[in-house]
C-alpha cells in the first residue's frame, strides 16, 4: 500500500515548477531570525529571504527543519540554503557561504541575583549551550575558547535555548552561553543578566550546498542591491528597534541595544497558544488515524506472510518485523524521508500527492510500516492461540481456507488481541510527537516552537493536557469495543 | 452399498507406526462401534477417514469416491466432493464460540453449500428439536452444558446431510449424568438408519446401538464382528482381556 504511494509520488515528479522555487531551511525556534508568531513564520532572516525571492521572481518556500538534520536537508535538495542566523565560524569548509551579513557576539547570561559577573567567575560552574552551535564548538576541547571551556565543571548541551533558560531558572545550570540576539530576547522578560565580557564574536552568513556558487551569487547580489537601496535597513528596523544591523561586505557590530521582538508578549495569551496547539492536534490526529488505517490491515498481511509455508517469504517478513521493532522509529522516519535521495538520487522534496507535502507522507509511511510490524506480532500470537479443533471443525464442514480464516478464526482473534492492540494504540497517540524529527507541524513541534518564542512551559503543559485527553478518549473507545465483544466466553 | 471402504490402510507418525494394514467396510445404514485400548489408533483411523490426516498407504473410498488409492490422494475436486459425504463429531465439540447455536448450525449450509438462509434456519430448528435443544437456539455455546454442546455439534454435522457420520468418543469429555442425553440422540439417529462409525468406551451403548463392533489394538483390527458376539463371545484373546478389564470396572 505504502509502496504504491511512493511510486505514485515518483510520477508527480514531472509536475515540476514553472516558476523557480527558492526553498529556505530554518530553525523555527530561533527568534528574532526565524520563529513562529500567530501561526506565521516571522523573523529578520525570513523577511530578507522573502524580499530576495520577490526580486528574482521566485516562489519562496519557508521550510522549518530539524536542526540536527540540516545537512541532510541541504544535500538531498530538500532545501536550497540555510538562512538562519547561521554562523560561519568553524563551518567555513562545510558549505558554500555568502559573505557575512551580520556580525554577532556570543555572550553569557546568568540570573540577575547570581554573583557571577565575569567570564573568570565561571570557573567550576555548569554552563549550558545549544547543541551544534558555534559557541558549543568553541568551548569544547580543540575549540577556539577551550581556554574558557576547560575551566567549567560541565558543559551541558541542550536541544534548544528554551530548554536552557528553564534549566537556568530552575538552578540546574549556572549560566548559558548564547547568541547575543537571542540573549537579549530571552532576558527581556526579566530576571536574567547578560555579562559584559563577550565569549567570542562570530559572523552570520547564508549557507548553500557546497559548490552551488551560482545560486549563492544571485542571492548575494540581490542582497547587496537591497542594502544599497535601503530595503535591508528597513527590514532590520522591524526586528532590531530602528537600528540597521546588516553589514554585508562592511563588517560592523550587529545587534543593537533593545532588540525588539513582539513574540513574547503575544504568546502570553493562553487562548492563542491553545488555538495554535489545536491546529497541531489536528495534524497529530491525522497521523494517528492514517497510521491505524494502513497499519491494521497491513499488519494482518505481514502476519500471514510471517506464518507462510514459503521459506523466503516467511524469513523476509521475520527480518522485516525484527528490524522495524529493533530500531528507533525516529531513525526510520529519517530513512523514509532522506532515503530516496541518498539511495536513488530521487529528490522527493518538490513532490506532493494531492497537495500533501512529502514530509507528511514520509511520516505516514514510517509510522504505518513500524506499527504494522508490531500489529503483525500481535495478530500472529492471536492466530496461534486459536485451538486446532476450530480449524478441524471448519475443515470437516467444508469451509475453504479463506472462509475458515475470515468466518471462524479472525472474529475470535479480534477479541483476543484487543488488550495488546489497545496498548499499542495508546503508545501511538504519544508517538505521533516523533514527527517533529521531520519538522511536520504536529502538536509537539508547534509546542516547541511557541515555547522557544515565549520562554514558558505553558505550551508544553497545554499540549500534555491535550495528549492526555486524546488518550483518555481512545482508551474509552477501546474499552467500549472490548465490552461489546464480551458477549461470549 | 458400501458407504465407506478402507483397504490396507497404514499411517505412521515419524518412526512410530500407528495404523497397520487396516481393512473394513461400512454399508449404508450400518452402525459400527470401534473399541480398543488407549493409543491403539482409533482416533487416527477416524481422522484419516474424515481426511483430517493423510494416510501413508492403502485406499479409502468414501460415498463412492476414491479418496486415496494405494497411498495416492485424488485431485482436489474429488476430495472436495468426498468432504461433503462425511461429518464428524469431536470429543470436545469444537463449536464456534463466537456464533449463536443457530449460526453454528446454519453457517456451513449457507456459506459452503449455498442453501438459502431461510431454508437453512427451518432445517436447523427441526434438527435442534430432534436434539431436544430447541430452547437454546439463541444461546452462545459457552452458556450450554457439555452434553448440550455436543448435541448442538451433532446437529451442526447433520445439517450438511452427510452420508456417514464419525464420532470420536462423543461422551468422554462429559460428566456421567450428561452422557445419556447424547447417547439417546445417537440412538435415535441409528433408528433412522443413519450410517455411523462411533469410537466409544461405553460397552452397553455399543452393544445396544452398533450392528458391528471393531476391536483395535496396536494399530490393527484384531476383531470385527456382530456386536453381541464380540462382547459376549470374543474370538481373540486380547479382545477377551480388554472386555474383561472393562467389566471388572476400571
Ligand atoms: N499428531 C501426532 N503426532 C505424533 N504421534 C501421534 C499423533 N497423534 C497420535 N499419535 C500417536 O499415535 C498413537 C495412536 O493415537 P490415537 O490418538 O489414534 O489413539 P486412540 O486409540 O484414539 O487413543 P485414546 O483411546 O487414548 O483416544 C498414539 O501412540 C499417539 O501417541
Ligand atoms: Mg482417541
Account of the 3D structure:
The complex is a heterodimer of chains A (489) and B (250). Chain A is an alpha/beta fold and 489 residues long. Chain A has helices at 2-11, 44-55, 70-75, 134-139, 146-149, 161-170, 180-187, 213-228, 231-239, 263-267, 270-306, 311-326, 329-344, 358-384, 388-396, 401-431, 443-454, 458-484; strands spanning 21-26, 29-30, 34-37, 40-42, 59-64, 81-87, 96-97, 102-111, 126-130, 154-158, 175-179, 192-194, 200-208, 352-353, 356-357. The longest helix of chain A is centred in the middle third of the chain and has 37 residues, at 270-306. The radius of gyration of chain A is 27 Å and the shape is elongated. The two termini of chain A are 36 Å apart. Residues 1-17 and 249-264 of chain A have low confidence and may be disordered. In chain B, a hairpin with a 2-residue loop joins β5 (65-69) and β6. Chain B is built from 9 helices and 11 strands. Chain B has a 6-stranded mixed sheet, sandwiched between helices. In chain B, strands 2-1-4-5-6 form a 5-stranded antiparallel sheet. Chain B folds into 2 domains: 1-85 and 165-173 and 196-250, Rossmann fold, CATH 3.40.50; 86-161, no CATH class. With 250 residues, chain B is α/β, with parallel strands linked by helices. Chain B has helices at residues 42-49, 76-83, 101-113, 117-130, 146-158, 176-191, 203-209, 227-232, 237-247, and strands at residues 2-13, 16-27, 31-35, 57-62, 65-69, 72-73, 86-89, 164-168, 196-199, 212-217, 220-226. Chains A and B meet through α15 and α16 of A and β7 and α3 of B. Adenosine-5'-triphosphate binds next to α1 of chain B. Magnesium ion binds next to α1 of chain B.
